[in-house]
DNA sequence: TTCCCCATACGGGATTTCCCCAATAGCATC
DNA sequence: GATGCTATTGGGGAAATCCCGTATGGGGAA
């Protein structure tokens, strides 16, 4: 899982770091972070406005792969308030260190998902009492949701050109046949259904595997599902 | 794709229809609608507070399968303002009819996605000028985002018990081996990796297929991904 | 003790998939 | 016309998967 620091990329009109800064300023937050995950590309894209020293420490410790905040939020529909995780040992481990860098335990992470399995995790943090946090949160949660959605949308669409260039373009026949395979049909079944030869089915599957970068048809099914090209049935 | 009307199910503590009504009342909207899609179950769950006559007409015309608002929002990360779609012929077709039932063209649809491919589409509509709509929207969008997320979360978790009861329980070995298969390894590869015989790999795959109700291993991979048991790699 | 699930393994053989090669035809674009 | 993509089809054969049955042993619950 490679980590790509988005703040290092050139975005002439927009600067994600300053977006995070403005969210913090508007809502009186300490820090904000965005992590975008693309399960197919196995990459994590991130931009944060945390202290540099904490960023370095975080990556050194490999927290991005075992931060319970990220793993929990990645499985959640609704925002995850960090308070929920105070009993978690891994959370304690991360925040024992984070404290030394001035990062508070008071925060929340908002997951946003796109149609191709991509996930954006937008986190904000503020050093304050539980009472203050509760009040602040209910006041700004809607705006944070909004910010999270648009940030993730922006990141995904900023990569759209790259995605189009790297996004496999399966022909409609290839997709159709993969869908039948995902539904449990054999190649001969699919040939019968579509009134073509099973040799033709084989050709389309091979082409589809190649475009998806899959070694086996099972892997191709998985990747196509991850890309939203076909559905599990 | 079966259509399940959630307002007809018994929810003693919560009533989704009154949730929609309260959102409309709070934000001075005319109507609200929620449509949840579960690709595994191939079902659409919906609850609306539109006039009954329009609901009947909508289903009669089969609009749920070709409403451009739904199809566009299902592909979007960010909320979709219906203004964007006024040039679309299918949109015009739907709203030519909707007008007769008092449904305005001024509205938006918010997509929310869960970790298992589920999608919730939350729509609201208000009969007003473009100016008024623009003002109202920017004022309430955050709260609507919030409402959308929690509504979808609620629906998904209301079905959680059912899901647990029907959720296949794969052994850790079965999951592990399916993950390797999803990663493109052959059975022999997996046997080498795990230092077991390929006959054992075969046994676990067969068991896994049986539990997942899959006819082929490719289908099992797909279903396991859909259930969040393994990931596309 | 019995039962169930899990993990491990095998026999024998049928079926299916996949590899690598070949080909034609239609359509769109430059 | 040349090129690229799509859809269609086939030969020959190796590799892999799958079917249906068998077995042992460990651990946990009733």
Automatic annotation (TrEMBL), chains A, B:
Domain HTH luxR-type: 163-228
Entry superkingdom: Bacteria
Gene of this entry: lasR
Keyword annotations of the record: DNA-binding, Transcription, Transcription regulation
Gene Ontology biological process terms, A to Z: regulation of DNA-templated transcription
Molecular-function GO terms, alphabetical: DNA binding
Protein name: Transcriptional activator protein LasR
PANTHER family: DNA-BINDING TRANSCRIPTIONAL ACTIVATOR DEVR_DOSR
Gene3D superfamilies (alphabetical): Transcription factor LuxR-like, autoinducer-binding domain (3.30.450.80), Winged helix-like DNA-binding domain superfamily/Winged helix DNA-binding domain (1.10.10.10)
Organism: Tropicibacter naphthalenivorans
